[in-house]
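User: Please fill in residues for this 397-position structure.
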């Protein structure tokens, strides 16, 4: 392995341009001790129908500016991240070597190309890995045993894994990586983009709520994401309906997003004028839309992290998430930034909403504290930790 490197030429292998990664790649490229190039193994679903959003998606923020990148020819018959052979780039290794990388960072292993990069560069240059898998979803005993054997072998090809939080740290430890091969790099969003012009956005949000027919004294719950089964938007809809039927509770529920469950949810909410569907909305709209709600709710039964939680907190919103949301133990602090309920437990979710319906002052205080807490989970901090550790690890003999 190359040692005592003084200047990093870091090749990053990523599946496709993602709005959450672009700010990190851009900032990392600005370090004076790094030259960075991102090697994409797929162009993504840009201008194509996204099966989970159930419509064509084109992001309205730049994903490819501020850093060097290249799309490597993908020969897969069915390209995409939905299966192992969906990323098949025969020239990836040669392209990275031709560029002259002396360190490699790979995002995810479960694709033919990404696994081949890990295997090829292991022992040649420092190999770093970024993943956010957790142990929150189980499986039968035989499946778990096979997975342990397989992942112990996969992770034997990396020098350091960057984990975003406690659940992912436990995952890496369970699959054979010792503590000295783990480094915390927080999952982050561009906090500045969501907190910029906050007072103006809060005023616009109040106006938008009035346009939607939401009374000033309502408690507004907000869900923002894909309307898919594992995110449990129907559970949240049912909770809101049951509370409103009690007549005591003046609650409105806003869904921002689209997906295969939308038609069913529209049918279930027919006649419920306190439930609002705003459809898919692009990135530049989100700093305003998060502010429509008093509480951001993510009731998923499976969620490796939940970056919408970061975004909502950056907009000074309290958050309510299930215990199957990966970020829960890291940034959702009970009575501080939000609350955690048992996934799929309708009564538990209902009782927490009732509590904060009756205690709006506590909710206002949580909104302020949520904003303060999420400043520690910034892109700037993530880049410093990641860049410093890559440099330190690469200089070791």
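Assistant: Residues filled in for all 397 positions:
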């Amino acid at each position: 392995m190359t040692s005592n490197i003084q200047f990093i030429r870091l090749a990053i292998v990523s599946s496709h341009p993602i709005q959450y990664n672009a700010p990190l790649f851009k900032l990392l490229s600005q370090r004076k001790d790094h030259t960075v190039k991102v090697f994409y193994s797929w162009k993504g679903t840009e201008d194509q129908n996204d099966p989970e959003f159930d419509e064509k998606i084109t992001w309205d923020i730049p994903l490819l500016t501020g850093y060097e990148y290249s799309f490597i020819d993908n020969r897969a018959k069915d390209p995409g991240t939905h299966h192992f052979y969906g990323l098949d780039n025969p020239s990836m290794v040669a392209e990275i070597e031709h560029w002259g990388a002396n360190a490699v960072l790979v995002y995810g292993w479960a694709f033919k190309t990404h696994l081949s990069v890990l295997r090829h560069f292991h022992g040649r240059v420092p190999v770093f890995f970024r993943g956010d898998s957790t142990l929150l979803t189980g499986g039968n005993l035989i499946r778990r045993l096979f997975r342990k054997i397989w992942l112990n072998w996969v992770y034997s090809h990396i020098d350091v894994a960057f984990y975003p939080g406690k659940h992912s740290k436990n995952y890496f430890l369970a699959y054979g990586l010792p503590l000295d091969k783990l480094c915390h790099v927080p999952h982050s969003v561009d906090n500045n983009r969501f907190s910029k012009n906050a007072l103006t956005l809060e005023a616009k949000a109040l106006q938008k709520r009035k346009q939607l027919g939401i009374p000033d004294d309502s408690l507004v719950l907000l869900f923002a994401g894909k309307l898919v089964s594992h995110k449990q938007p129907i559970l949240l809809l049912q909770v809101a309906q049951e509370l409103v039927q009690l007549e005591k509770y003046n609650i409105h529920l806003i869904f921002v997003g689209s997906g295969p469950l939308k038609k069913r949810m529209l049918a279930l909410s027919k006649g419920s004028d306190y439930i609002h569907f705003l459809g898919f909305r692009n990135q530049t709209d989100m700093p305003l839309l998060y502010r429509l709600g008093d509480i951001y709710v993510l009731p998923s039964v499976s969620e490796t992290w939940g970056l919408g939680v970061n975004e909502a907190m950056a907009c000074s919103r309290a958050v309510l998430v299930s215990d199957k949301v990966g970020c829960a133990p890291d940034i959702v602090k009970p009575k501080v930034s939000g609350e955690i309920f048992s996934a799929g437990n309708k009564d538990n979710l209902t009782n927490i909403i009732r509590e904060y319906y009756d205690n709006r002052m506590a909710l206002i205080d949580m909104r302020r504290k949520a904003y303060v807490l999420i400043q520690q989970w910034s892109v700037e901090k993530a880049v410093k930790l990641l860049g410093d550790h890559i440099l330190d690890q690469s200089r070791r003999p």
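For context: The first helix runs from residue 22 to 28.
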